[in-house]
Amino acid sequence: MIDNCLGAQRSRKIRRALRHFQVTIFCLVLTVVVLRGTIGAGKFGTPGQDFADIRDHLHLYSRKRAEPHRVLEEVQTTSSNENVGADTNAGTNNYNEFDINKILLDEESDESKRDPNVPFSLGPKISDWDEQRSRWLEENPNYPNFIGPNKPRVLLVTGSSPKPCENPVGDHYLLKSIKNKIDYCRLHGIEIFYNMALLDAEMAGFWAKLPLIRKLLLSHPEVEFLWWMDSDAMFTDMAFEVPWERYKDSNFVMHGWNEMVYDQKNWIGLNTGSFLLRNGQWALDILDAWAPMGPKGKVREEAGKVLTRELKDRPVFEADDQSAMVYLLATQREMWGDKVYLESAYYLHGYWGILVDRYEEMIENYHPGLGDHRWPLVTHFVGCKPCGKFGDYSVERCLKQMDRAFNFGDNQILQMYGFTNKALGSRRVKRVRNETGNPLEVKDELGLLHPAFKAVKIPMKETEVKNEE
Amino acid sequence: MIDNCLGAQRSRKIRRALRHFQVTIFCLVLTVVVLRGTIGAGKFGTPGQDFADIRDHLHLYSRKRAEPHRVLEEVQTTSSNENVGADTNAGTNNYNEFDINKILLDEESDESKRDPNVPFSLGPKISDWDEQRSRWLEENPNYPNFIGPNKPRVLLVTGSSPKPCENPVGDHYLLKSIKNKIDYCRLHGIEIFYNMALLDAEMAGFWAKLPLIRKLLLSHPEVEFLWWMDSDAMFTDMAFEVPWERYKDSNFVMHGWNEMVYDQKNWIGLNTGSFLLRNGQWALDILDAWAPMGPKGKVREEAGKVLTRELKDRPVFEADDQSAMVYLLATQREMWGDKVYLESAYYLHGYWGILVDRYEEMIENYHPGLGDHRWPLVTHFVGCKPCGKFGDYSVERCLKQMDRAFNFGDNQILQMYGFTNKALGSRRVKRVRNETGNPLEVKDELGLLHPAFKAVKIPMKETEVKNEE
């Protein structure tokens, strides 16, 4: 039964899970295992030939799409209506109210904490955030939202569990990962918020970022862009500055491809492990639209089934934020699409599988500052889960490659000071530039000691306040 | 023999060590054990009654001072000469040349890497750093060394080993510790450098900070103050801003007491786990004067013996940077003393032993922003060593108290967003302020969301360039 239900690849996982779980209902266990194994989705990074490479690399499995049930039909009918209306603020958003509330009403909730008659909400509806924010920025010129011409104030947000990792070495990799982020952000004038608190018990796991993001946007009106970054993502191009001007008319930037999301509804058509969200009413609205599939338990499970049916190639597991975003954008393109920038020109998120074996080739042929396949801005270890016990890849491969990625990035920091790692796989450093009595005449090759994108502009221009439409 | 040589307290450690080591020479093993057990010195924090409290608390042992041997007599004679001379730049510093070179020449070096005829050096002697730096600052007004009136540009430097901790949970505490520092520094406009590279193999362990500090000062002339902070030190007062103006005529600020250092030569008269060092020629000079006791092996061991004999209450172990600094200041007060500020008005370093049991009392009676015994700026877990295997205190007590200290500080961050930890010993948070539709009308109690000490001054004043005497 197991081999008929799934490919041979999964059998190994099931046997592993069977050692830990009692098999009461085969398919229920199956769902839980797949769920745990594939949390943190978003394996892929590039279209066309690269996408084909990734596919071969991962030996993707495919699922026969189930017959849509009534909820799905109604969702499709409603979303094709194109009657998006202007009143998103009043919460008449199809994705919000129709689908999930129907699920809530249809089924008894076995969660004592949730009152099914009360739809989930991230907080009181705010409809005038642009106005509130503008006013605040005017009254607080000492907290400008732009810290230089074309240089928005950015807050990078990341985090991990307040508990020690189940895998003892996991915390060491979290530590290296945050050091890596500290280095990039220091060079680029970006502040960091490291979260270790679960603000909303219902929105646990990958959904925890939503209440956190909302809270930070509302608490820090001076922040122009919030940059969410997973703890398993590392900066591998220290010299690459995000092209902020490119996004002047956008509010949400994710790595992905239009055709993969809007045409194919591919669950990995975009990645929510590293994205930019502009502070404003629009952000609050999309967070509200995004959240309903998140509350854990019945809601999340049922939503997961919808997503598996509706999206291309999505495995069976509870609703994750990334799939939910693909679904949201694909079904409500008119409402959100014009402000969403799916960026594929550089690796705002870069799937580690197709990058880490090429580091030596990159060092040979290219240089930092490119941010793309030649020298990726971000290498994202999706599926590795060094903190937990179940990952999609071998622990040894993951940890070894994470060390290499860390060093690949760290070398760019070390070279500023005349050092480099002895090898990408080594923890030791060696000197590559002698000490000198005239240190200020030495320029580091990459110009990272005093980069232009970090300098303060004298005199500082007036604060720019951007009003959203 | 063991019990005669040491107190009963040490016997436990020796028995534990004996499980791991073969006993070839009892005293050699003893020295190694004591060395490992007491690395990371600097347990104490306050004079007078507090000092007596600490003493009782730690059940200090005392050593009968050995008869000074010839090196010591010569050192004492030379240092009492008060002929310090002006030419410190030429390296005729007593501490440097006389003591250590004599040791090197007297004994055969068994370290193949060190040529005893070549004195240890942190780098080529630089004598005009103030001039080089002034020139650079003039040419680079976009990298000012003051980022506001009375607000120097500060770089907080910390770090840990590139290897996973021997104690599996150690990395988790390093992670919490860096999150804690990220939070404080974000609020106070301070940048962070997290080091994981050993720049000089000879200056390993606690001495590793010296080459690192020198490198960072010379690479970043825009940095006015470098704030070194141990990885086992945490910020527990998020609202306290260092009184920079107080130090306008000082170059080196450490927690400590003049009488403990200059009169008593007490090895814990100051603490080098958290200190401020102003960028300039003076800093390079004191680093050069500080370094000679550091090179591992014979030099460090012999220097350790000198320090144990010369300083009050110092146990037997190899030379550590803190004892060396006490010795340096006590023997060369005229050279350095006028620029060293031993601060005891607040806890730039706060010994955890006398603080952590009082957190509830502090919450009851006081508030953040005081920085002192009522609400310590820094709680420093000296002797705990959660990353390693041998600490001076029970692992359980250390970890439990580190959790409490972390939460004590983290509560001040969480309250900004309407949350708090359920208890100092809990990992879970609870809401203490409801969400609102007018978030900008809510002020967090501590005023940490948009504190004055972080605001940008509009318009920005001209850069202030401070020239050292």
State which percent range the strand residues of chain A make up. Answer: 5-15%
Q: What oligomeric state best describes the polypeptide chains here?
A: homodimer
Could you state the order of secondary-structure elements of chain A as H and E? Answer: HHHHHHHEEEHEHEEEHEHHHHEHEHEE
Largest sheet composition of chain A: 6 strands, mixed
What is the overall pLDDT average of chain A?
81
Helix proportion of residues of chain A, in percent?
25-40%
Low-confidence stretches of chain A: 1-6, 37-47, 55-112, 459-469
Anisotropy-based shape of chain A: globular
Strand order of the largest sheet of chain A: 4-3-5-8-7-9
**Structural class of the secondary structure composition of chain A?**
alpha/beta
Rg of chain A, Å, rounded:
23 Å
Distance between the termini of chain A: 55 Å
Per DSSP, the total helix count of chain A is 16
Largest interface, counted by CB within 8 Å of the partner chain's CB: A-B, 70 and 70 residues
Number of strands of chain A: 12
